[in-house]
Design goal:
Helix content: over 70%
Largest sheet: 3 strands, antiparallel
Number of domains: 1
Number of helices: 13
Distance between the termini: 33 Å
Radius of gyration: 21 Å
Length: 374
């Protein structure tokens, strides 16, 4: 039974890896030759990812849970160092450049570190308070919010708004399944709504005041988000043209008919859809949905509560990225630097997703037990 569960997770990831590599190869038609053979690099990253999975299977999730605070601190230190020593790319400092290896993006791993930290915090809270009062929950929410805000602020300063959104999605997904009272979510929603309306009111009706308070950088980032629906951007227009003209079977492999930026990363879905058409889209969506369902089914089994909290964060992260990435390529959502898990090119992002796979496979192996945290 355990092996069956493992195969139901491993097989779709392997199939997605093949889709990733062949689609990145097709996308190389419009990528700079200076970037090298991205398809080959992605294959190497996948091999490195499976090695990472093997290492994690040897050490087990308990090893991570007991050291989660060290990982969290290291992740935040790297985010701080990025602000001073990160390589500027497209007006952002999101990457370290490692000679001979490539770029390294700490925020990709911070997602996992944050997830593990929140899982241990929720576990400890539920263990300490069997019937927590409102005061107990209020203090706990304050502590967890602080844990999320620190990397969120550091990541926002890079700036990387997409990663910040993923942090928040992970947080709310895990807190929703933590068992705290529903009233906190309603209250939080009302506060966010009021603050959001005030924020947007200044943005839309007092532009000069907005720039004076928040700065021109944030203003222009919002401009990009709120004017995505006009379809006036090169990325969206060409993405829609490539997908819309593909038909049932697509233009054929390695025959992407039109150029759009970030074809191997943010817009990898557009490349795949233009090559393989509606039939190919159905196959890709089936694999993605199948993997998500297997993770959901794993969460319903008798597993340790810390693992269940971690799975809720994993599902929240994957679902958000999948929906946002595909949605932005067809004009349903604003264009953000959010990749399609297991498909888009990227060493850091792929290794972080493979770390997730290692965590999930460990959960299929572990009996329900009580972890000890130090």
């Amino acid at each position: 039974m355990k092996q069956s569960l493992q195969y139901r997770i491993i097989i779709p990831v392997i199939l997605l890896s093949f889709i990733s590599i062949i689609t990145i190869y097709s996308a190389m038609t419009y990528t700079s030759p200076t970037l090298g053979n991205l398809a080959l690099k992605q294959g190497v990253w996948y091999i490195a990812g499976w090695i990472l999975v093997g290492i994690l299977l040897r050490f087990k999730n308990d090893y991570l849970y007991q050291r989660t605070w060290y990982l969290y601190i290291i992740g935040n230190i790297l985010l701080v160092l990025l602000l001073f020593f990160g390589t500027p790319i497209n007006n952002s400092r999101c990457w370290f450049t490692i000679p001979g290896v490539g770029s390294f993006q700490p925020s990709e791993f911070m997602k996992i570190f944050l997830m593990l930290t929140l899982a241990t915090m929720i576990h400890q809270f539920r263990t300490q308070y069997k019937n927590p009062t409102c005061k107990d929950e209020f203090i706990f929410i304050g502590k967890t919010l602080l844990i999320v805000l620190i990397p969120s602020i550091l990541t926002f300063l890079q700036p990387d708004t997409g990663a910040v959104l993923i942090y928040l999605i992970i947080y709310f997904s895990m807190m929703f399944f933590s068992g705290i009272r529903l009233r906190w979510f309603i209250g939080t929603f009302m506060i966010i709504l009021i603050l959001g309306l005030a924020f947007m009111g200044i943005y839309f009706y007092h532009e000069d005041l907005f720039i004076q308070i928040f700065g021109s950088s944030i203003y222009y980032r919002l401009e990009r988000i709120f004017h995505w629906s006009t379809g006036s951007g090169l990325q969206l227009e060409n993405s829609l043209a490539a997908i819309g003209s593909a038909g049932l079977l697509g233009h054929g492999y390695n025959k992407t008919p039109i150029y759009f930026p970030e074809s191997s990363t943010d817009f990898i879905f557009s490349v795949f859809a233009s090559n393989f058409g509606l039939l190919g889209i159905f196959v890709l969506l089936f694999l993605i949905l199948y993997l998500d369902i297997q993770i959901l089914l794993l969460a319903k089994k008798k597993i340790m509560d810390t693992d269940s909290y971690t799975i809720s964060g994993i599902l929240g992260m994957l679902l958000f990225q999948q929906i946002q990435n595909i949605g932005m390529t067809v004009g349903l959502f604003p264009i953000m630097g959010i990749t399609l898990p297991f498909v888009s090119y990227g060493g850091s992002s792929l290794l972080s997703y493979m770390l997730v796979i290692g965590i999930l496979l460990n959960i299929t192996n572990e009996k329900k037990k009580t972890y000890r945290y130090h």
